[in-house]
């Protein structure tokens, strides 16, 4: 049994108990990770292809360690110009071991909900508060009150319309 799964933006052909080097993952060493974007699944000659991913399929793995790859030297030179630049790069990798491949029964995690910004509560009773506000805040207040044509009004006209 093997699967083609997308991990950190790249596709890998994985089998049970296989060790794979992938781009650096955020989880700690020894943590369990699961990948639900399974693109192809082969089980005893029976091939299932997703469109784009197979619903309910999941690959679980254990993080063995974080490491860096070999250094790659990038050397640029232009002849007869006196231009030379030498740079180096070491890619960060994570070594994972595939523990299981589930064809179905995996529950897809809901994305974490972000807290919605709270709307500003602005009291429009005293005229002093309105004069200290910016034009954008006044226009937003006029929009909330349902005043039509507030987009073309100037600050003084907005204050007058809001106090009436």
Please give a structural write-up.
With 164 residues, the protein is of the alpha+beta class. Helix content is 16%, strand content 41%. The protein is built from 3 helices and 10 strands. A 4-stranded antiparallel sheet has the order 2-1-5-6, with no helix packed on it. It has a 4-stranded antiparallel sheet with strand order 3-10-7-4, with no helix packed on it. A two-stranded antiparallel ribbon has the order 8-9. The longest helix is centred in the last third of the chain and has 11 residues, at 135-145.
What descriptors fit this protein?
single chain; alpha+beta; 4-stranded antiparallel β-sheet; 3 helices; 10 strands
Quickly describe the structure.
The chain is an alpha+beta fold and 164 residues long. It has helices spanning 127-132, 135-145, 155-163, and strands spanning 2-7, 10-15, 19-23, 32-35, 38-43, 46-49, 58-68, 72-78, 83-89, 92-102.
Structural class, from secondary structure content?
alpha+beta
Give me the number of helical elements. 3
Termini Cα gap: 74 Å
What is the string of helix and strand elements? EEEEEEEEEEHHH
Strand arrangement within the widest β-sheet reads: 2-1-5-6
Low-confidence stretches: 122-126
Q: Compute the CA-based radius of gyration.
A: 29 Å
- The number of E-state strands comes to 10
Strand fraction: 35-45%
Write down the overall geometry: flat
The portion of residues assigned to helices is: 10-25%
Q: Tell me about the biggest sheet?
A: 4 strands, antiparallel
What is the secondary structure topology, with strand pairs?
Elements: E1 2-7, E2 10-15, E3 19-23, E4 32-35, E5 38-43, E6 46-49, E7 58-68, E8 72-78, E9 83-89, E10 92-102, H1 127-132, H2 135-145, H3 155-163
Antiparallel strand pairs: 1-2, 1-5, 3-10, 4-7, 5-6, 7-10, 8-9
